[in-house]
Each structure stands twice: as C-alpha cells, then as structure tokens.
Write a structure and sequence with these properties.
4-stranded parallel β-sheet, 111 residues, alpha/beta, Rossmann fold, single chain, 3 helices
C-alpha cells in the first residue's frame, strides 16, 4: 500500500553498475516501506561555454541514465511506483537538498 503524501525514497544515479545496484536496493526499500521511489540524476553541463548542441547531446545522455535506472527499478521490483528527475546542478548539492525531504537517500559508487 502506497502512503499518500509521504516522503519518497530517493536514489541518485550516475549510469554505473553500482548506481543500478543502488536503484534495485532503493526500489525494494520503497515497496517495503509503501513509498514512492524517486530516481534522480544531477546533470552538470560539462562545457558551459560551448554551443547549445553540445548541451543538447550531453543532456540527452543524462536523460538516458535516468531512463535506464527507471527501467531497472520497474524490472527488478514489481509494484514499485517510480518518478524521475533530471536536475541541473552539482550532484552533492542536489542530493543534499533532496535528502531533507526524503525518507531514505540511496547512492552507489564504483570505487
């Protein structure tokens, strides 16, 4: 049962295998807690002084990271309710901000 208005489980993704493992874990936690899963990728424009077409291709690649994570969550955890966000900003700042209103913040790292 989904708890209306409750804080979501937030997972930060970066397109790595560890990021997708974090998505699977976060999806299970969201379902177990009766909460929504919010998949987030903080997008930093790699070359702010270059032409708009560079931005468009970089943003498209970032959107692919989010789509892959959402699909992973849905395939791995039946019944998970997922929302997605592609946010312009420095990842650590974005995740810290989102953590304030989250039930749980999950991230993965390929070290």
């Amino acid at each position: 049962m989904l708890i209306p208005g409750a804080a979501p489980v937030v997972v930060g993704v970066n397109g790595t295998a560890a990021g997708l493992a974090a998505v699977r874990l976060a999806a299970r936690e969201a379902v177990a807690r009766g909460l929504e899963l919010r998949v987030v990728h903080a997008f930093t424009w790699p070359h702010p002084r270059r032409a708009d077409e560079d931005y468009a291709s970089a943003r498209h690649a970032a959107a692919h990271v989010v789509d892959q994570a959402v699909n992973t969550a849905k395939r791995s955890t039946p019944g998970v309710r997922v929302s997605e966000s592609l946010i312009d900003g420095v990842p650590i700042r974005v995740l810290l901000q989102l953590s304030r209103a989250a039930e749980l913040l999950v991230v993965g790292d390929d070290c």
